[in-house]
């Protein structure tokens, strides 16, 4: 027979499990490659879907809604601006992503974004920040991706997203075409790096 106390514990366990197993998740594909030089990364969202990601998430108890893939286009005459490559295209794509993330959050879902190159962190984090005033970021990556337009050795925006998001670096970021919509939304203390092993001199 069950005591009152064990019944309370059991109920608590079941409600924890059902909370975990009824997690509402929205999937959005972001097939962007212009933040760096390899075309193939835009195939990421479809490749991840084909590899069985959705089934794995459902088996893990997620209640999924697939919002499909965003459509990104190259902006015309997207010249390099102070060494930064394709700023208009990458800025516009991230603006779209940020809006899409905010809509999914407004639907009451955790947003899982399938990229795409790492410049997408700009839209992903800013879209979430619009909903969570106390947002923290755990950045698991070999790269810090905190170059600024002046320190970037490659000019690729996938190596710079964090510098655009951190309030303390605002004065280091020039007014880039394509990014007028963006306001930094994180403090430096709100990000933790895990796994760094390839950091540029200007990022240190
Ligand atoms: N998310 C990445 N794969 N980042 C690579 C960045 C490489 C280099 N640090 C750069 O700024 O260009």
UniProtKB/TrEMBL annotation:
Which InterPro entries would you find in this protein's record? Answer: Ureohydrolase, Ureohydrolase_dom_sf
A cellular component annotation (GO) from this entry: nucleus
GO MF assignments: arginase activity; manganese ion binding
Pfam families reported in the protein's UniProt record: Arginase (PF00491)
| Sequence similarity | Belongs to the arginase family.
Give the protein name, as stated in the record: Arginase
């Amino acid at each position: 027979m069950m005591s009152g106390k064990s019944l309370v514990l059991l109920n608590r366990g079941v409600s924890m499990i059902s909370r975990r197993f009824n997690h509402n998740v929205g999937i959005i594909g972001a097939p962007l490659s212009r933040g760096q030089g390899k075309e193939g990364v835009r195939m990421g969202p479809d490749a991840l879907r084909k590899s069985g990601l959705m089934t794995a998430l459902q088996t893990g108890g997620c209640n999924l809604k697939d919002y499909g893939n965003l459509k990104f286009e190259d902006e015309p005459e997207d010249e390099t601006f102070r060494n930064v490559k394709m700023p208009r295209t990458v800025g516009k794509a991230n603006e779209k992503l940020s809006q899409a993330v905010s809509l999914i959050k407004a639907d009451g879902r955790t947003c899982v974004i399938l990229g795409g190159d790492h410049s997408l962190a700009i839209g992903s984090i800013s879209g979430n920040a619009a909903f969570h005033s106390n947002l923290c970021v755990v950045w698991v990556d070999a790269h810090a991706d905190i170059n600024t337009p002046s320190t970037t050795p490659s000019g690729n925006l996938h190596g710079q997203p964090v510098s655009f998001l951190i309030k303390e670096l605002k004065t280091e970021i020039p007014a880039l075409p394509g990014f007028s919509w963006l306001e930094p939304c994180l403090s430096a203390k709100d990000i933790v790096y895990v796994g760094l092993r390839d950091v540029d001199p200007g990022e240190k």
